[in-house]
Amino acid sequence: MVDVDQVLDEAGLKNPHVREFVAYWAQVTGADAIEVVSAEDDERLLQESLEAGELLPVSGGRYYSRSYFKDTARSEERTVVATSKESDKGVYNNWKPAEETVATLTERMRGASKGKTMYVIPYLMAPQGSPLEAYAAGVELTDSRPVVQQMIRMARVGVDYINELKDQSSFVRAVHVTGDLPNLGQGTPDDQRLFATVADQRTILHFGSSYGGNALLGKIAHGLRQACYDGKDSEVFLAEQFLLLGITDKQTGKKFHVVGGFPSASGKTNLSMTLAPDALGDRYYVEFYGDDIAWLWVGDDGRIWAFNPENGVFGVAKDTNEASNPGAVEAIKPGSGAIFTNVAYNPETQDVWWEGKTKNPPEDVTGWLDWKGNPIADRTPEQADEPWAHPNSRFTAPISMVPNAAEDYNNPAGVPVDAIIFGGRTRDREPLIRAITDIAEGVYDGLTLGAEATFAAEGVDGQLRYDPMSMRPFMAYSEGEYAAHWLHIIGRASQPPIFAHVNWFQRDPEDGHFLWPGYRENVRALLWLLQFKAGEVKGQETAVGVIPTQDELNLDGLDLPQEDLDRILSIDVERWRQEIEFREEHLKQFDGLPEEIWAAHRRVAEALERAAQ
Ligand code: GDP
Ligand code: PGA
Ligand code: MN
Ligand code: MN
C-alpha cells in the first residue's frame, strides 16, 4: 500500500479536499505508486516514457505516440452525463442517474491500476486570475504517463493552482483509468468503456481509453461538458466548442475578436492559427487565442467577453502543411516538443508523415510504419490505398509555440467578442457566409447547425446531422434550457456581437471539388463580416441572412471560376425550403424550447416562402 500522506507532503500538496480525493481513488484503483506532477516535470517524464517505449523519438526533440488501434477517437456512444436530476436529460447528453453511474464506474476502476503509477495532475482551465476561476480548477488522476504529457501541453498544470484556491473544496474531481485496452470489447454490445461527467457532483470518471479526447479530462470533459453545466447552474457563463481569434486592421488600428463553433475536425484549429492571405498584403494580422474551447460571459461594459481555458493545441494532422497552415507547421517544428499521435512513423529516420503533409508519401518507404505500426513495405496491393496515418491523427503543442499567438492570450480579463460564427462541413445549401443581426435568429442558427460528421468521433464519418452550436457531443443538460441560457446571456449584453454562418466546404454537385479555396483565404469572409457590422458594406438581404455581393468580398489574387463564385454567394431557395422542414423536426425534439426560437424559425420560414413566390 502506498503511503499517500507521505507522497502528498513531499509534493507540497496541501489542499485537504484534494488529499482526501487522491487517497480515496488510490485505494479504489489499487495503483502501486502515486506521483504529483507539475509542468516542470515534463522533461523527466518524457525521458521515462522514451525509456519505457511509450513514446518514440521524433527528430528535433519531438515525440511520437501510438494509441491502441481501437482507441483513436472520441466515443460519443459511450459518453454520458450523469446527475441526480432527471430534468437534465436532453436529446444528446445520454443522461444517466448519478448514483448508479458512479457505482458502475467505481466497480470498473476497482483494482484496474494495479502495477501502475497514479499521476495526480492539478490544473487550471483558465488564465490565472480570471473572473471564472472558481469553475476552472481541477485535479486529474490518471494511470497513463502520456496523458500527463499531453495535459501539461493542453492545460496549466501545477500544485500551486490547487493549493491557492480561495474555496479549497471547489475543484473538479477527474479520474481516468485506462483499463485493459485489448479486452474491453470496444464497439461490441459488451463494450466496457464508460466516460461519465457526473455534473452535479463536479466529478468526471472515464474508464477504457487513452486517446486524447477521452482521456485529457481537463480539456473536453471539464472544459466543455462540466463547464457547460456549471455555466448554466451559475447563470453566469457559456462554455462552448469555439475557436477564438483576433483580427487587427493595421491601417485603422482596429482590433476585432471572433469566436466560432464548428464541429470537431471542421476547421477550428486551422482558422484560429491561420494568417491573412498573402494577396492582401500585410494590412491584416490574425492572432490566435484558442482553437477548441471558449468560455463567454457578460462584462460590466455590456459586451460579451471570452477566453480560451486551454493552454495548448490538439490539432488534426491530416492536410497540415506549409500552404494550408504555416502556423501549425511552425508550432510543431524541431525544438517545439510537440507530440504526434497515430501518424505514420519512421524509427530509422525519426520522421513522421501524414496524408497531406506533402503531396505524395515518401518515395522511399524503407523503415516507414503506418499508424498501426505495420511496415508500409509489407503492404499487399489491396492495402496500397489505405492511409498511412489515422484520419484523426493529431499533434499536441503548447500555445507558446504558436507563432501568431496573441500577446494577451494569458490575460485573465479575456477579450471582447465582436462576432459569433457557426459553420461545418456542408456540401450544399450553405453559402460562404451569411450575417445575422437578430440575437434570437443567431441563436436559432446555432441550434440548427447541420453538418457532416467527421472521423473525430467513432463511426459517424460523413453522416449528415444536426449539431447545435457544435456542442452535440458535449451538451450537459437539456437543449431547451440550453437555448434559454444562450438567450439569457447574450440578451444581457447591451452591445451584443453579430452572428454569422460560414461554410468553407460547399462542393460542386458534379465533380465534388470544393468551391472555395478555404484555409487562409477564409479570412476574407470574416473581413467582410466586420465591415458589414461596421456599416461599411450593405450586402444582399436574403431570407436566411445578409450575404456579400461579389464586389464587396475582397477577392484580390484569387482566380475562382465565376460559376463557383455564383454558387457560394447565393441562396438555393428550394433547397432551403426543404431544410426548414428538417429543422422543424429537429427542433421539435427539444422540450421547453423558448418561444423566441420558434418565432425566429417561423420568421425565416416565412421569408423563404416569400422568396419562393
Ligand atoms: P477542428 O477539429 O475543428 O479544429 O478542425 P481542423 O482545423 O483541425 O481541420 C480538420 C480538417 O479539415 C483538417 O484535415 C483540415 O485540413 C481540414 N480543413 C480545415 N479548414 C479547411 C478549409 O477551409 N477547407 C478545406 N477544404 N479543408 C479544411
Ligand atoms: P477538435 O478537438 O474539435 O479540434 O477536433 C478535439 C475534439 O473535439 O475531439
Ligand atoms: Mn473539439
Ligand atoms: Mn482543432
UniProtKB/TrEMBL annotation:
Which annotated residues bind substrate? Answer: 74, 211-213, 264, 392-394
The Phosphoenolpyruvate carboxykinase GTP-utilising N-terminal domain extends over 20-231
Q: How does it assemble?
A: Monomer.
Catalyzed reactions per annotation: oxaloacetate + GTP = phosphoenolpyruvate + GDP + CO2
Which function does this protein serve?
A: Catalyzes the conversion of oxaloacetate (OAA) to phosphoenolpyruvate (PEP), the rate-limiting step in the metabolic pathway that produces glucose from lactate and other precursors derived from the citric acid cycle.
Reported EC number(s) for this entry are 4.1.1.32
Kindly list the positions annotated as binding GTP. 265-270, 394, 425, 519-522
* This protein's record includes keyword Protease: no
Q: Which UniProt keywords apply?
A: Cytoplasm, Decarboxylase, Gluconeogenesis, GTP-binding, Lyase, Manganese, Metal-binding, Nucleotide-binding
Q: What is this protein called?
A: Phosphoenolpyruvate carboxykinase [GTP]
- So, what pathway does this thing act in? Carbohydrate biosynthesis; gluconeogenesis
**What GO molecular-function term can you cite, just one?**
phosphoenolpyruvate carboxykinase (GTP) activity
**Membrane-spanning ranges:** none
